[in-house]
Amino acid sequence: MTDFLQQLINGLLIGGLYALVALGISLVFGLTGMVNFAHGEVVMLGGYLTFTLTQKAGIPFLGSLVAALLAGAVLGLAMDRSTFKYTRGTPMNGLVISLGLIMIFQSLAMTIWGTEPLTMDVVFPGALHQWGLSLSIQKAVTLVVTAVLIAGFGLFLVKSRAGRALRALAQEPEAAVYVGIPVERYIALSMAIGTGLAAAAGAMFAALFSITPFVGTSLTAKGFIVVALGGLGSAAGTIAGGLLLGIMEALGAGYISAAFTDAYGLLLFLLVLSFKPAGLFGVSGRVKL
Amino acid sequence: MHRVVQRSIGVALAALALGICSTGAQAQNVIKIGAPFSLSGPFAAFGQAGSAGVEMAVEELNRRGGITVGNTKYTVQMISEDTRSQVADTVSIMERLTREQKVAAVFGPIVGVLSTPGQEVTQAAKTIHFGPAVQWNALMGRPDKKYLVHTQVDDDLRYGAFVPMLVRETKIKSIALLGVNDATARSIMPKVAALMQKEGVKVVAEEYFERTTTDFSPFLTRIRSQKPDMLFFGYGDNFAVSILRQGVELNVAPHYSAFAGTSLMVPMQQALGKPVDSFIGMVANENLLQPLHDDVTKWIAAYKAKYNKEPTGTTDWAFSMYDYVFMWARAVQQAGTFTDADKVIEKIRGTNYKGVLNIKIDNRGQADHDYDVGIVRGGKLSWQHVNVIK
């Protein structure tokens, strides 16, 4: 039982990070129908930026995380204004551009940080040990920050004027235009929020694991699995999908074999889509944020 | 005006002819060697180290006057190619190097995933090919792999020396093995398991994880329940740092050890500040952190001067190429030819070479050489030089 609870904690931690990464993918897809494959590279860049700010500039980790979040948002905004803006209505063009951006961001990271894996010193040393369970302080902080970011995002969507506008735009784009919602401005905002969250996930990722210029690719893949699991364009589904994927991977690797960790996620994906083709929280033909 | 134009054309033609002649003469005095490495992509850290090893050796070789074959002096030209860490690219580069460039030898890639398909091309083309892939262990001595030179110590020899040392140093009674789910780890781990059992150590777990794994907690939790005295894992700093950190957090075992993939310098430094009874890391070649002899110190100085940067955890893979370029050059001189691969390979097999490494090549083309082991214990790092060559 203790091991099972430990595996649940392990799964929730990594699942929370998957959810943060996937929220941006879901948000942008919900509004534009575009699949941004370079999303994982923003996670990678967020990780590297946090590494540099914390390890080299001596800025406290949480400060570096906020800086990474803001930098990620600016990068997302820049990507949208410089390239994706011109692909509206032709999602395939956006997809191709995002593939090009992967190469650019990876080369940039290789040039600045090299190809060796970088690992941050432990920011919050120590661990909590209770009832046979172990949780490092770093992981506890990661769980709390992830929960705060997800809750903050949820509150923003439900309570704020901008959040309501985004939801309206995703659900009924034409009606949203009729009532005067500035579409382009809100798409840019969604891009900034999505990449900001991705960069924040990268910051926490870097504090826990090693980072390389190529770490974004597998995170993007996980992000897409999470989005499809939860239901395309559904924020609640994305969060549930992320946590479910994390727990499934932890239980599979913990009780069956570590050699097929990615396969457990795909199995879950197939199972869910067999019974609910639109995903856990998705509704066929509709996007709901 | 007409005469001026005629004269100009004449001068231009003469210059062109001279240029062609001089280029031809120059080309005659060049021996090309292929250097296909992952300069980009996921294996770039390994590839850049290997490429640096060849580049430094070629420059030094040419500085010393090149290679004398018969009465003719040749300079060596390194044909550098980027495999982009892709198998398809590697194979097509090998085709180009052997068929179009007609290189006298190929050095690299480092990673077996690339060099193993690559050697199919070089062996069919009868081109001498140097590489350190673990997968090559099984190829050495085969008649159709006559031109391969395996630049890493045979696993039986390497682990035959390392495992008894681990047991002697830590007095462990049980061990858990954890490796990447690839041919390299799946080749090494069963050998380690067998050697451990021979030493009377119980193997309580043998686990493999996907290369993309970043969170090791789920299966470390399972391994913890087996209560091993030691967690032995591999390979590479990217895995080792995370496994060590997460293993210590979960209190998986008192002793930790890792086998070579990268130099393990980073995890060794990190282990210094961790509550572990010991962390013992095997370096693939020579440790660049605290060099144990002058040749390595000089090599590090030359590396820093050339690339204007410190060596990293992966730089020691340069040694799986560096000395071998000189070894090949010596064989070419002794054979009196660089085009007859049969004669050159005969001068490589069954010989010794003392460079930065102390290398012995057996009659199959398999290298043996000494290597370093780092031991972190009681907050201190010490080194042992393991003598494979008696």
Describe this protein's structure.
The complex is a heterodimer of chains A (289) and B (390). By secondary structure, chain A is mainly α. Chain A has one domain. Chain A is 73% helix and 3% strand. Chain A contains 11 helices and 2 strands; from the N terminus they run ααααββααααααα. Chain A has helices at residues 2-32, 39-56, 61-82, 91-113, 137-159, 161-171, 173-178, 183-208, 215-230, 235-255, 261-275; strands at 127-130, 133-136. A two-stranded antiparallel sheet of chain A has the order 1-2. In chain A, β1 and β2 form a beta hairpin. In chain A, α2 (39-56) runs parallel beside α4, α2 crosses α9 (215-230) and α5 (137-159) packs antiparallel against α8. The two termini of chain A are 37 Å apart. The relative contact order of chain A is 0.21. Chain B starts with a helix and ends with a strand. In chain B, α7 (217-224) packs across α8, α8 (237-250) packs parallel to α9 and α11 crosses α12. Chain B is elongated, with a radius of gyration of 24 Å. Chain B has a 7-stranded mixed β-sheet, sandwiched between helices. In chain B, strands 2-3-1-4-5-6 form a 6-stranded mixed β-sheet, with helices on both faces. A 3-stranded antiparallel β-sheet of chain B has the order 12-13-14, with no helix packed on it. In chain B, β9 (230-234), α8 and β10 (255-258) form a beta-alpha-beta unit. Chain B folds into 2 domains: 24-151 and 321-356, Rossmann fold (3-Layer(aba) Sandwich); 155-289 and 372-386, Response regulator (Rossmann fold, 3-Layer(aba) Sandwich), CATH 3.40.50. Chain B has helices at 2-28, 44-63, 87-100, 112-124, 155-170, 183-198, 217-224, 237-250, 265-272, 294-307, 322-335, 341-348, and strands at 30-37, 67-69, 72-82, 105-107, 128-131, 148-150, 174-180, 202-209, 230-234, 255-258, 278-282, 352-354, 358-361, 367-369, 371-377, 380-386. Chain B is α/β, with parallel strands linked by helices and 390 residues long. The A-B interface holds A 3, 6-7, 10-11, 13-14, 107, 110, 114-117, 119, 122, 127, 134, 136, 139, 205, 208-210, 212, 214-215, 218, 249-255, 257-262 and B 40-42, 44-45, 48, 181, 207-210, 212-219, 221-222, 225, 236-239, 241-242, 245, 249-251, 266, 270, 312-314.
